[in-house]
Predict the 3D structure of the following.
Amino acid sequence: MAATRVLVVDDDLNIQRVLVFTLKQEGFEVHVASDGQAGVEMAAAIEPDLVLMDVAMPKLDGYAATQQIRAAEQGRRVPIIMLTAEADVEQRVRGLRAGADDDIVKPSHPRELIARIKALLARSGGGAAKKATAEVATLGQLCCFYGAKGGVGTTTMAINTAIALAGRLRRKTALFDANLQFGDERVFLDLGLDSTSIVNAIGEPDLDADLLKKLMVRHHSGIELLLAPPNPESADIVAERQRSDPASLSNVLNLLRRAYDYTIVDMAKTIDDFNLQLFDEADVIFVVMTADLSCLKNVRLVLETMDSLGYERGKIQLVLNRSNAYTGINVDNAESALGRKIDYQVINEYRGAISALNSGEPFMSSRPDGPLGQSVARFAQEIDGVLAAEAVAAR
Ligand SMILES: Nc1ncnc2c1ncn2[C@@H]1O[C@H](COP(=O)(O)OP(=O)(O)OP(=O)(O)O)[C@@H](O)[C@H]1O
Ligand SMILES: [Mg+2]
């Protein structure tokens, strides 16, 4: 079999040397170009399986060279990794927008570089012969998780349900942290502040499926995340963008539906313009609650609000979390107080939940067969049964 051909475009001789050495050791066939212009010409001439592209170079910088390579491609799409000087989100997004598939901060450890190259080659089906594949229809279900009160376990439910859908049930699953000001998913999943987020997606005038995919952050459990803004100031940018142009949020949500079977949305508790649009566009809203008086009062208010918005009953599903925790109110009491049935129940397992929380590893990946893992897996399986059938019937 012919060796995988890698084109290195970098003007720094030392970096060239290190890259050529590392890549050759792995058995790659390596070609080098020392500026952007030469890189574009060489990409056309040798049709590499992968390109490593520096950003700052003479003649043509890495962004422009990437754009030109993309513009000249016919049918094939060579994977391009940008070599950036710093972990700056703006710079990364610029590269992704120009057409790069991934980026890596220089200097990087050879093992990391090789791992990223191999992952990208695997994703792109090996490189050279790759043709654009037809889009496979997804279930496209948008599921919002909304807590009737703070701290009832909305984030815990959203994350672990998403992992169960992606893992056991083999559904393509995205998790959108829509708790704009205080999103917890970076912490719960041990992800850094320098990752791309909804700020980059909603602010992008030409957002398409390809670019959105690159703004998603992959987690080893198999889910892909659209993260919350890294700080409250950038949360304002997102809220303002949605207010002035609701179509920007619709576009993000529609692209997510098209790319994933399930888009799980972890919402903040406020009822504001942003959340009202999420409610409107959702296929189903899971209202997460616990069995205590203030939560029951809030659930009644939420149900009334949803009624006044004209949503049909089935769009709102009640999920009783920590259902077997002693609160003095049992499921029957709760149902009669609400005048409707509780649709799903998830058990209480304080130890399982808390140890997962503090290790940055959700229980659905670290202890899927523990009591809590099994309980959420059952929930995921039940909702998948209903939602997958609905999606297929609607086609
Ligand atoms: N089924 C459960 N059994 C035991 N503990 C749980 C369960 N679900 C959630 N918890 C615990 O409850 C706490 C709050 O959970 P979580 O952060 O998911 O709630 P939240 O509703 O998203 O909160 P916030 O309002 O801050 O966004 C966490 O310590 C979590 O480990
Ligand atoms: Mg939360």
